[in-house]
Design a protein that fits this description.
alpha/beta; 17 helices; Rossmann fold; globular
Length: about 400
């Protein structure tokens, strides 16, 4: 197939990993993909964002900034339409963004299948956390894009509920979670040996205060097990300075390490060094990319017991899940794993097997998306002669 991939990403982060992994998987499956997005994306550094976008958000009043976002759909549409004119896509695939109408408008005009990947209910999210001013307009644009889509692809069943509530028929909603490139994790890391001198707790991602890693640092300092614990954080974020200061105050600065921003190709080997992989907290509707990395690496995972996490992990079989918000619950799971290398190995092996059994891979996601587009093309081809009668 010829697939036109539309996006509005301007930063290099988890969003870009999803985008680039999906495009690479589609191409590996033999499809031709043309990617159309902001010029700033090609120039962005790892962890950075567009300077222009940052300035607009800082200096423009809320309503003006949001109208500027909406207005961006005009040049984006023209750029997308020019690409489509020469490329003649069989389908348009778009990563949903608020106030971004380009793909929906072009799909309507060209009458091609339109697949919309949804990673968050952005109108609700920004209303709650980002001070969204034009809420009615934002929700209208969101509903317009979702309802225009041939299929909406939310990353969790929890998120699918938001899409259904926006009026999208259930038949047009297909949950497609995040995935992993399994070739980057060709074999599980060796099971930790009982005699290992230190047990490594690991975390991958952008470090924020709400992740609760300060609790992990405090508990490491107070741990009195036979084998000492350390924390390895693969990533960067605003919580890092406070965590480093806390570790120094507690006398364990040598056991709390940060790699800083890590290139994508370095992540598998870093995760392989974890004995226990931490997902201390998760947004209720998210499909955390780190969970799939932990699973593919065959690591023992500790994660909150909530519906979106249970869509991919099962307590006592592929992870230890703890009651979120309950004091000491996460650490009880960590302590159990820290003293039981056999359990760590069993959970890690089962998590890796789950990825393979359910094809929780980017290649699997690419095949699912293409199958939906092909079915929509076939449906339209069948309906055309009937409509002409």
């Amino acid at each position: 197939m010829k697939i036109l991939y539309s996006h509005r990403i301007q930063s290099r982060d988890g969003m870009s990993v999803h985008l680039e992994s999906m495009v690479a998987a589609l191409r590996a499956e033999g499809h031709e993909v043309r990617v159309v997005g902001p010029a700033a994306y090609a120039e962005a550094s790892l962890g950075g964002e567009s300077r222009l976008t940052a300035l607009l958000r800082r200096w423009l009043p809320g309503a003006a900034a949001e109208l500027a976002e909406l207005a961006y759909s005009i040049p984006a549409y023209l750029r997308l339409a020019r690409a489509a004119a020469g490329f003649r896509p069989d389908a348009i695939y778009e990563r949903y963004n608020l106030f971004f109408l380009s793909g929906a408008l072009l799909a309507r005009r060209r009458q091609v299948p339109f697949l919309v990947e949804v990673n968050a209910p952005l109108a609700e999210e920004r209303s709650r956390f980002g001070g969204l001013t034009l809420q009615r307009l934002a929700r209208w644009t969101e509903r317009f894009v979702w309802r225009t889509a041939s299929h909406v692809l939310p990353v969790t069943e929890v998120l699918a509920g938001h899409v259904r509530n926006a009026g999208v028929p259930a038949a047009r909603i297909v949950v497609v979670p995040n995935g992993i490139e399994i070739a980057e994790f060709p074999t599980p890391a060796p099971a930790p040996a009982p005699a290992k001198p230190v047990v490594t707790l690991g975390f991958v991602g952008f470090v924020r205060d709400w992740h609760g890693l300060d609790t992990v640092v405090r508990e490491i300092a107070g741990f009195r097990g036979a084998t000492p614990l350390e924390l390895l954080v693969v990533g960067e974020g605003p919580a890092r300075p406070g965590l480093e200061l806390l570790a120094a105050e507690l006398g364990i600065a040598d056991r709390v390490r940060f790699t800083g921003l890590a290139e994508r190709q370095a992540v598998p080997s870093l995760v392989a060094g974890f004995d226990i992989a931490l997902q201390p907290a998760a947004v209720a509707y998210a499909s955390p990319l780190k969970v799939f990395e932990y699973m593919a690496a065959g690591r023992a995972i500790v994660a909150p017991d909530q519906p979106n996490i249970r869509e991919v992990l099962e307590h006592e079989r592929t992870a230890l899940l703890f009651e979120g918000g309950k004091p000491g619950a996460m650490w009880a799971a960590v302590k159990r794993l820290a003293t039981d290398p056999v359990l760590r190995a069993r959970l890690g092996a089962a998590a890796r097997a789950e990825v393979l059994a359910r094809d929780l891979t980017w290649s699997g996601n690419a095949r699912r998306a293409v199958a939906l587009a092909e079915a929509e093309i076939a449906r339209r081809a069948k309906a055309a002669p009937e409509a002409a009668r």
